[in-house]
């Protein structure tokens, strides 16, 4: 467990959410009032706090958030650790899909406004945002070195200067593993393992344990380049750090993350309200305009400060193949990385 945060005192607020319909304040008999909705979430705190704070304000439902890596939190949810999780909010679809049996069937009231590619076709996997994998480059450290894709990460000048998280603990790192297998294998993930072996050698024995270590490490100058997700870099660009986003020239896979109700939640009504709230137009608009994420809704525009997806070389994985091979690919990556330490 990485830590607990109290969201009622969040530093940020989402003013435009105040316009949500009055029905959100209607509290039925099954509302548990004094108890708290427990949310397991791997998102950064600066992303979590404003959304949860406004949810509490609008609904009167108190929320307790447990943060950590996606893999760690999924294990906690599976093991039913105390406090028992009601909502799993975050983690890429590729990571969470393999443990979909943990989640309660629920179709959000907003489902008809979700982009067709991101519909909850499983019945218990509500998509939350659209998250491209990207490279984050520290422009001061990179200097004149060209970094435009995965191929450039094999340059000797970057040995030991690449921030990569362990795919076993981080869903964003697992997404990058999938992305590089398909991109460098030209659509055949098995053909991408030669690249993975060369890439792991250039990590020079450095593999991080959390997503935040990647984007923080690049922003603060400990690494020249990091493999992360779009929002992680966008936050630092907006804050004036010497970093830039690179959409890999070999191809970018963009996968949604999810917001799901844990099966058997003791706070089912409150949990459904949370899913509906974070997928609603007001929350999704703020997520797009202010928090560095792309909405999954059809009626919310892409952020103006992010590159239009039409300008990115998008590629696609095979969902069934990824689900079937998730554990094997994690095991194989660990084996390859460990082999570079000998």
From TrEMBL:
Instruction: Spell out the Gene3D superfamilies in the cross-references.
Output: Periplasmic binding protein-like II (3.40.190.10)
InterPro entries for the chain: Ferric-bd
Q: Which UniProt keywords apply?
A: Signal
GO biological process: what's one of them?
A: thiamine transport
Q: Which Pfam families match?
A: SBP_bac_11
- Matching CDD domains: PBP2_BitB
PANTHER family on file: ABC TRANSPORTER SUBSTRATE-BINDING PROTEIN, THIAMINE-BINDING PERIPLASMIC PROTEIN-RELATED
The organism of origin for this protein: Lacrimispora sp. BS-2
Name by which UniProt lists this protein? ABC transporter substrate-binding protein
Any one GO molecular function term: thiamine pyrophosphate binding
Name the GO cellular-component terms.
outer membrane-bounded periplasmic space
